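pasting for ref
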Amino acid sequence: MFLAAFGLTADPFLDTADPAFYHETPAAMQRRQRLSDCLTAGRGLAVVVGPIGAGKTALLNAVASDMIAAGFGRVGLILDPTFATEEELLTAAARALGLNRPSGDSRRDYRESFKRSLFDSAGNRQEQAVLLIDEAQLLDERLLETLRSLLNYALDDRKLLSIALAGQPELSDAILRHRNFADRVALWLELKALTVTEAGELVSHRLRCAGFGGPVSPFEDDAVVALSIKSGGLPRRLTTLAREAMESAAERAAASVSLLDVEVAAQRIAPQDINAAGSDSLSRASGSGALSRASSPKSLGERLRAWWRAAS
């Protein structure tokens, strides 16, 4: 309904990985470059953490696409790492990287089989392999030792396998419980919430990609602030709210999307998630233009500093 009302040729807020609608903030571009550099330089292990909907999968897909387009070695992506055994993990890794299926009668046999396949492929062709694992908080912690062993595979001048783990904040806690594995992390990245300005830019970008040709965004300034606060600055939730807010505006035949429409959208989608702190912050932001957020759990930086203090 809202497509015709706002002159759009496509839905700008579908929850898909369509690269045509992908938008990067300067901070996101920097994270993408740092992750790509870490993996292509063969530094070993990179870890990306962030809450649900922060853009972890989009980041992995973007980096994978960049490396594939550049003709870089072997790139494999595992989306569901709920493996019960080491053999299952090694089999999935080999499949993702296009290597021969490992085999054997024991875990050691499987590791040696995977190692031979990796050396035969990457070693002989002067290639490096990159394994990306999404939803890594689902990994059985016992398998972290398996991944650590894979990071040991190297020639004299380079590593043969780099690994990136992306997951929710509890992933960092799991890693820090295993010092030998945590010591192998070459890069930690934490995905941050979008600012109000970044939220507005994301919405405007998607609208333009969907055919909006107006001189200014149909979202009023207060509506953008509300989207940012009620979504917690998380891209996936923000776009879901934005879509429903446009539906609300179209239903009342409005020419623009207002604060009221965002409130309606929030109640339609998940009223139980709209807490008092968010409502108070929204009220203050509407009156003064200031953005206030509720307190959040410890950041990745705080977790790492505490870990280093305890380990020293």
